Q: What sequence folds into this?
């Protein structure tokens, strides 16, 4: 079926920007999404650009909401949905018992690496995610963040030196602000070819969109 | 791939109950789901049993939440997501400008029909949904409800006579209470073979579950 929104691959080649992936280290759904979206990008030959947001610290306040896992009825559902999604996307996730984990330092370090050692940035974020969500190790403290940086071959001392300076604070603030201005309200979120998708349960729709430029079934 | 949760079709035949579909007439997502789940049921040879809940009146209060469409950032996202999902599931939806629509009378009528004219119950609910979400006609009032009943060949006078009696009130209260006890917190929700799924964006997962008894990819 060919709908009015359908574009041929040729017409779309000119606009193949990256898939932008919004994450918060504290979300196990974002961890699942981080693995799934890299596989999807690889399948389609599309780059994936990672951008940190702060759901708990900032975005839920804008929305006037509590953390989803604390909401009656929704919390238990999400716990089960995480298990199912992790199985579907073949990502090992182990809920940790750490209580509140602070993602701010790790997010600042990620942004510093993007600017100063770009080939180490994504491996660093993947290391942070895996420590927290497969090994249950707190990644909130400065030592943990520096250790993750070293683990992926980045300059730990340089990361440490910039975790608390104005540029790092400002960079993270801007990252969150820009995400919000684009409508991001949860993680994982994905923006690609002008559309925002929230949640791993929308990845099938994102893939269809990227393949066909349409939301109609059967096109492409 | 065969995972530990995998069951053969033979083992599962004994437990093929209906897919239970939870709806609230006021939700356009539930309308899309009502069409999509009947098609899915037909594809898989599974009956679909419809059960009304009252999201706005009851369930959001339990959750301590506002209506999702009123939440900053999430509201605009949901409006766009409705368009995309309607396109994907090929369901015409036209947002109405009616303000608050009260689903209570129509839900009571539906339950009365389930008990007293079961072959008219689902056509009635489909008529209510279509009036509201394709033609933008308010279905909250008693006259509208009776008219929908007549439209599908039910006894309008009998429906009218029972809209406000104790049995009707109690039946709807029980329907909501039972849904909540099973973890339902939004519409559309679907329960089948022991699993709860929320949202049309989970229908692919429900279908995979029904076909394979597993959440692992590639099984079945």
A:
């Amino acid at each position: 079926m060919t709908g009015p929104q359908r574009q041929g691959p040729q017409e779309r080649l000119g606009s193949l920007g990256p898939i932008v992936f919004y994450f918060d280290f504290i979300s196990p759904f974002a961890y699942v999404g981080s693995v799934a979206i890299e596989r999807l990008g690889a399948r389609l030959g599309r780059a994936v650009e990672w951008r940190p947001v702060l759901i708990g610290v900032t975005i839920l306040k804008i929305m006037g909401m509590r953390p989803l896992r604390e909401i009656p009825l929704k919390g238990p559902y999400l716990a089960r949905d995480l298990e199912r999604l992790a199985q579907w996307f073949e990502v090992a996730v182990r809920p940790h018992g750490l209580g509140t984990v602070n993602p701010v330092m790790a997010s600042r370090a990620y942004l510093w690496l993007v600017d100063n050692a770009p080939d180490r940035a994504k491996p660093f974020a993947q290391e942070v995610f895996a420590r927290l969500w497969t090994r249950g190790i707190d990644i909130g403290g400065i030592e943990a963040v520096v250790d993750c940086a070293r683990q992926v071959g980045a300059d730990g001392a340089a990361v440490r030196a910039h975790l608390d300076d104005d540029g790092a604070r400002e960079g993270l603030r801007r990252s969150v602000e820009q995400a919000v201005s684009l409508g991001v309200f949860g993680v994982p979120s994905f923006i690609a070819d002008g559309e925002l998708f929230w949640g791993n349960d929308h990845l099938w729709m994102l893939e269809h969109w990227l393949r066909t430029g349409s939301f109609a079934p059967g096109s492409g």
Notes: Residues 17-212 of chain A form a domain with the Glutaredoxin fold (CATH 3.40.30.10). Residues 42 and 48 of chain A are 9 Å apart (CA to CA). Chain A has ten helices and four strands.
